[in-house]
Design goal:
heterodimer; A: 307 residues; alpha/beta; FAD/NAD(P)-binding domain; seven-stranded mixed β-sheet; five-stranded parallel β-sheet; 23% helix; B: 109 residues; Glutaredoxin; five-stranded mixed β-sheet; 4 helices; Thioredoxin (chain B); protein-disulfide reductase activity (chain B)
Chain lengths: 307, 109
């Protein structure tokens, strides 16, 4: 199937690109992946989305953005993209069902918008993999209720870590925030909430070096020395760009972010937006903004090609 | 066949005493990744209807069952075979992740 535009990704950048490209009459196809909705799926209340003055939950915001993109003619497929070929036009996209150019029904497009976002980083320490789901967790708002009157630890110092710690205080009797540096990277308002919360204790200049426990988490080791008892460990140390499938196809920087000029990548006709590009702002609203820019750039580019 | 809802009341009867292997998705309505997993569980319930019984436990409603099996993270999918836990995986790893779990239990490649 040949499309004018294919969008890869279903976070704020991808869906906003879908809304704009749909309204521009491009009838885009959007690959949402099997876990559609991006990082906001793992949050509760989003308080800084302009217009939602009383806040909106992450999952609700993403459902609304998806429906809005569909309303303007974006066709959404909940499949993941496993491979791309940007070496010739039209560009080709492969999924688990359509694995190579010989399979019938290859997805192809005149222009592409990459909005694959970022994925969370693991600690890669002993105990982490083994105790996943048995106290090691990545979604505090999902799992907070299992920590009623228990102790929980959160690893990280950014907004995500602080939000996780605050979510856990609603149930846990004590929350330890393990911070690598001497300060929090989180926004001022979030920092104040942490400081004002008597249940949160911060361990500065601390790194978790081991997660201990037989069948479930019992303690964490800090800086290869001190052992801190806890019933759970929530990982919120940060994210890396989800750009693996574009290696060798697009120019990436040393950390894997896709290099862009405005929103155009190193391949003419392939655009990128959101957290797979942006290491500086990383907000829902900036991702959405870039998704809009990419859609406008793609539309203009396609128009010039046909002249 | 749609996914079955198991509760504290019928878990023993429908899951533990089942002759078919049973995959149970422990979930909550308000959990984002659980909402992502929901449609996939429904699809697989249909695809695997002859081989595996596929159902869900709402952790808010069936606290005893989720407590008994040490559920500390949602979604968590547990496969029971002959009344005993055979496999479990936490978090939603896409349809591939769940299929992998089912194949492992069924001994398929």
């Amino acid at each position: 199937m040949l499309y004018k535009l294919i969008i890869i990704g279903s976070g704020p950048a991808g869906y906003t690109a879908g809304i704009y490209a749909g309204r521009a009459g491009l009838n885009p196809l959007l690959f949402a992946g099997e876990k559609s909705g991006g990082q906001l799926i793992y949050t509760t209340m989003v308080e800084n989305w302009p217009g939602a003055k009383d806040g909106v939950t992450g999952p609700k915001l993403m459902r609304d953005l998806r429906e809005q993109a569909e309303k303007f003619g974006t066709k959404i497929i909940d499949k993941k993209v496993i491979k791309v070929d940007f070496s010739n036009r039209p560009f080709e996209i492969f999924t688990p069902e359509v694995k190579d150019a010989h399979t019938s029904g290859v997805y192809a497009a005149g222009a592409i918008i990459v909005a694959t976002g970022a994925e969370s980083i693991k600690l890669n320490i002993p105990g982490e993999e083994r105790l996943l789901g048995r106290g090691v967790a990545t979604c505090a708002v999902c799992d907070a209720l299992f920590y009623r009157d228990k102790k929980a630890a959160v690893v990280g110092g950014g907004d995500a870590a602080v939000e996780d710690a605050l979510a856990l205080t609603k149930f846990a009797k004590e929350v330890v925030l393990v911070v690598r540096r001497e300060e929090l990277r989180a926004s001022k308002i979030m920092q104040q909430r942490v400081e004002n919360n008597p249940k949160i204790k911060i361990l500065w200049k601390s790194q978790v070096t081991e997660i201990m426990g037989e069948d479930k988490v019992e303690a964490i080791k800090i800086n290869n020395a001190e052992t801190v008892k806890t019933d759970g460990v929530f990982l919120a140390i940060g994210h890396k760009p989800a750009s693996g499938i574009f290696k060798g196809q697009l120019d990436l920087d040393e950390k894997g972010y896709i290099k862009v000029w405005q929103t155009m990548t190193s391949v003419q006709g392939v655009f990128a937006a959101g957290d797979c590009v942006d290491y500086r702002y990383r907000q829902a609203i900036t991702a959405a903004g870039m998704g809009c820019q990419a859609a406008i750039d793609a539309e203009k580019w396609l128009e010039n090609q046909s002249q | 066949m749609p996914a079955i809802h198991f509760t504290d009341k019928d878990f023993e009867e429908k899951v533990i005493k089942s002759t078919l292997p049973v995959l149970v998705d422990f979930y909550a309505d308000w959990c984002g990744p659980c909402q992502q997993a929901g449609p996939v569980i429904e699809e697989l319930a249909e695809e695997y209807k002859e081989k595996v019984l596929i159902g869900k436990v709402n952790v808010d409603e069936s606290k005893n069952t989720s407590g008994k099996y040490g559920i500390m993270s949602i979604p968590t999918m547990v496969v029971f075979k002959d009344g005993k836990e055979a496999e479990r995986v936490s978090g939603f790893g896409g349809k591939d992740g769940v299929v992998k779990l089912l194949k492992k239990v069924l001994g398929e490649k």
